[in-house]
Input
Amino acid sequence: MYQVKCLNKISKIGTSRLTDQYTCGDAIENPTAILVRSAAMHDMELPESLLAIARAGAGTNNIPVDKCSEKGIVVFNTPGANANAVKELVIASLFMTSRKITAGIEWAKTLKGQGAEVGKQVEKGKSAFVGPEITGKTLGIIGLGAIGILVANAAKALGMEVYGYDPYLSVEAAWHLDRSVKPALSLDEIYANCDYISIHVPLTPDTKGLIHKDTIAKMKDQVRILNFARGDLVVSADIIDALKNGKVAAYATDFPSDDLLDVEGVLPIPHLGASTPESEDNCACMAVDQVMDYLENGNIKNSVNLPNVSMPRDASTRICVIHKNIPNTLTQLTGAVSLNIENMQSKSKKDYAYTLLDVNGDVNDAAVAALKAVEGVIAVRVI
Output
């Protein structure tokens, strides 16, 4: 019986996919797997029983990924499950940063009580909220993952010229990208040519503070910047200065901070990107499916700390080995298995690797001990 603990409220459409092999709830004491959304896990004691953590969403900043890797715990996320929800909010923000729609609505509410004068006041005051149309303007997209591609294609459909920058664009992603999107060879090309810039990259030490005073200086005057990825990708103080001096016309972010809330030109959205019932259902379903496939079959898909490894079952027994990415480890692992190996797959991801071995027959304790004795082996599981 597998024990699944939910640290947040997880969509029942997702958890209902768990079979009768699973017990699921928020009071599980020794979980085999954890389902989580935004709950902070860095100070949690990770039990020895824990094999997998699935984040129902894309970002895993709330999970101690390095600690999990050291303990042989697979960390999954659900890229693309909330992509459409985020895309729709980004497109809405293209309009809202252009036309000052929200400011105009708030101003219109102040006219309450003026009776027949409201119409006259509207005509008199509307000029304060005018802005450009987006059709014919240029949008630069930094990061062409699941969300970036949807934004690019939607912007093209709305009549925008679109530049895309992503040095790590996968072949699979490229198939889904509108062929008229212009590939930018550098970020400077995005900065120099685009009226709007939308950021869709993960937050890493290399991308933190990606947008700052020096990069802003390279952008077109009156540029509009959209950040629906992570708040720390943009240096808030530099954005505030650029808004005040007119270099930046507007900044929309789904990650408002205290210093941004009273700044004219900032559109602070309370992290609504993935806050749709459809998105929550999609993320939960993907997270549950990935956990079940790993626990029952050893297959890994969409892990942030281990490589994707998946193969059909070709024998009665499967051995799953998480190990350090050390030369000759695979030779030692196969040598430690005394049974005939019917199928095998092994891949690495940075410092870690994962190997699947399908064998016929029972794997005894001595074989497991021999596998664990190989240098760099972190965890061995037989299913």
Observations:
- The chain has a mean pLDDT of 96.
- The longest strand covers residues 341-349.
- The longest helix spans residues 277-297.
